[in-house]
Structure formats: structure tokens, C-alpha cells
Hints:
- The chain has helices at 3-23, 38-45, 59-64, 80-87, 102-113, 124-130; strands at residues 34-36, 51-55, 71-72, 93-97, 117-121.
- The protein is an alpha/beta fold.
- Strands 1-5-4-2-3 form a five-stranded parallel β-sheet.
Amino acid sequence: MKQSNKLTLIVLLAIVLGIAWTLRGHDAPRKDYKTVDVQAFHRLISGSDSVVLLDVRTASEHEEAYLKGSLLIDYKADSFMSAALSQLPKNKTIAIYCRSGIRSASAAKFLAKEGYKVVNMDGGTDAWIEAGKPVLSKK
Length: 139
């Protein structure tokens, strides 16, 4: 078999396998929540009664710097799921943040699966502070 025929066969096989993989439902994981930048997140939470602001960091992180009006439910705590389900209303958008956006993305995925409308802030409080947005502190 010629080299060009082998290459063509390999490419076709890869395409067929890729299509089969996708049709079986193994494509990229679906996001059931939105991730937005700091500016869009700020607009979302500014003066809206239809949004609950959720901080999923630890209590010590929250004390250092937090967004005004945020509810703290530590994503690392064993009680996160039960606390979130009992304290968060499903008829409001949950605007969620953490320090860098990683924990909040995981929490957002969980909440979205439970039927919440969730918006995650990209970059977390690190990006928020870098953008010059206001924070409060309990220290």
C-alpha cells in the first residue's frame, strides 16, 4: 500500500471514530450555566432583586474580601449540597463566585443539574479586585 493511501485511510478512520464517539454522547461536556467576565457579572448583580449572590469560598477567604450582599456557602464543606439546596431559591438567578473561578464553576455545574439558573464569574475575586471593583472585609 502506498504511503499516501495509508495516510488517507488513517484520516478517514479517525473521522469515523470521532463521529461515532460523538453520536454515542461522549462529546465535550455540556455546560448548563454561563460564565461571564467581571463587567458582565457586575451588571448582573447591580440592583437586581432576581439575583442571589453566592460566595463558595471558605469562611476565612470570605472574611478577607467579599462582594456586598453575598451569601456564603463553602463549596469544600461536606454540607455544601444540602445547604445550597435548602438556602437557594430556584426562582432566582444564582450569581456565583470564588477566588479564581474554579470552585465556582464546579458548584455552578452542580446547581445547574439541580435546576438552578446559574451565572459564574470568570476569574473570581482575583479578577474582581484586579478590575477595581468594590469588596468588603470583616478583618
